[in-house]
Amino acid sequence: MAKEYIIGLDGGGTKSDCVLLDTDGRFVDQLKWGTTSHEFLPGGMAELACELKKMFTTLFERNGIEPRQIRRAVFGMAGVDTKYQKQKIAGMIALNGLKNFRVCNDGYLGIKAGTVSGVGITIINGTGCSFTGIGESGEMMQVGGQAVVMDDIGGGYIIGRNIVRLVHRDLILNGKSTMLSEMLMKKVGAASSDDLMDELVQKVGENTIQIKHLAPMMFEAAHQGDEVAKGYLAKMGRQIAEYVAAIVRKLALVHRDVIEVVLIGSAFLKAADKTHIESLEAETERRFGHGKIIFRPLTVRPVCGAALWALSDIGRDTANKEFREQVISGIETHITN
């Protein structure tokens, strides 16, 4: 009988990690790939189909295996936000000969990687902001991540847009003064407030400035004590708490002793100011009581969650500490940035 394997994929908007393990959780191979999100590929879904075919061909050929040897695979991918997207991408994967697999948003991987139980909530706050939850019976829920049709609560793009809005209120509408104005003028290279919007629109159009790259200014201004920036981040934290509460309610998690929330993304892990996190913690404590919600920054690669999930699906005990550490260590040792 041919040897069997599992595949785990963390398909991001910028880069992707794909791992191949045997069914005993031992590391076999890994691929560093570009984006596997149709939202970030110029050719959309059609280009994604081509990228997936190239990725699978590379993985299979260099390991001398066939698709029928993949016992289980989990593909966590940015841009899988709707049933249509999930079904469309699942169809692409099936065309490559894989039969037993799961396709989901990449946010779910954080729950499997960051919690032993595999039950809880993930908040991703990077370029965009999305929320995922997995209940005790395996039921799944996702909200956010659809900035194309609605504003995300956080995320670099929305924060950057709001910096421009707050500066416009300060300089043009005689609103509350904020150091964000001076910071934005310096970033854009505008000589005066009258020139700011013209310069900004031109440079955004030329792609020499991206709105999402303005976001760190909000955290830096808050770190320096700017009241407008701190007020924005505090409000953002309270709004994020509303989404956490919605998932707790929908997935009936409230009876658990603790509810684990895994934090992913630069706005959580690299921010110069933590006002939004403090606000989030205070609001969830107000709603659920002290110690009910436990926030855990993700300390391993999300692809570890994909591999553990695939292994769990075939009956391996991923709650076993020694086995879990073996799987994670094997992946972390071999993958480099």
UniProtKB/TrEMBL annotation:
Residues 7-310 form the ATPase BadF/BadG/BcrA/BcrD type domain. SUPFAM superfamilies: Actin-like ATPase domain (SSF53067). Transmembrane segments: none annotated. PANTHER family: N-ACETYL-D-GLUCOSAMINE KINASE. This is ATPase BadF/BadG/BcrA/BcrD type domain-containing protein. It comes from Christensenella tenuis.
